[in-house]
Amino acid sequence: MPERTPETHVIDFRAAEHLLAGRDPRGAIRLLDPVITAYPENTAARLLRARAFFHAAQLRSAELEFQLVLEREPDNAFAHFALGRTLERANRPEEARRHFRLAAALEPRPDFLEAARFVRDTGTGES
Predict the structure, then answer these.
(1) Nearest to 118 by CA among 91, 92, 100, 93
(2) pTM (2 decimals)?
(3) CA distance 88 to 104
(4) What does the H/E/C string look like for 40-99?
(5) Tens-digit pLDDT string for the chain (127 aa)
(6) What are the angstrom distances between the C-alpha of 3 and each of 17, 46, 67?
(7) What angle do CA 4, 28, 100 make, to 5 degrees?
(8) If you compute the radius of gyration of the chain from its CA atoms, what whole number of angstroms results?
């Protein structure tokens, strides 16, 4: 195998993004593993690998990876939301709700608010 360089790691990271978008999470994980070995502090690579683990239904690995991201970036709303989805999928709704609420508090996007159940029903015609 040829020697890995910073440039090849960037290429692998970008290719992993495309694989994940193309619904090949296991392929993305394979590309990201050496990137993370070379750059263990790279939060973007870890977040992408966490998403790939989630889509590959490797929930425990996804949970651990999202937690690592949150240790480094506790204000990462997306990581809280994605960890919440991971915990929800693992049938741990109370733990999931905590992360959904943190995500919504950090960034009040409609999908975060809905997951946190902060959205109120406005379809009644009442104020």
Answers:
(1) 100
(2) 0.88
(3) 16
(4) CCCHHHHHHHHHHHHHCCCHHHHHHHHHHHHHHCCCCHHHHHHHHHHHHHCCCHHHHHHH
(5) 567 888 999 999 999 999 999 999 999 999 999 999 999 999 999 999 999 999 999 999 999 999 999 999 999 999 999 999 999 999 999 999 999 999 999 999 999 999 998 755 445 444 3
(6) 22, 22, 31
(7) 125
(8) 17
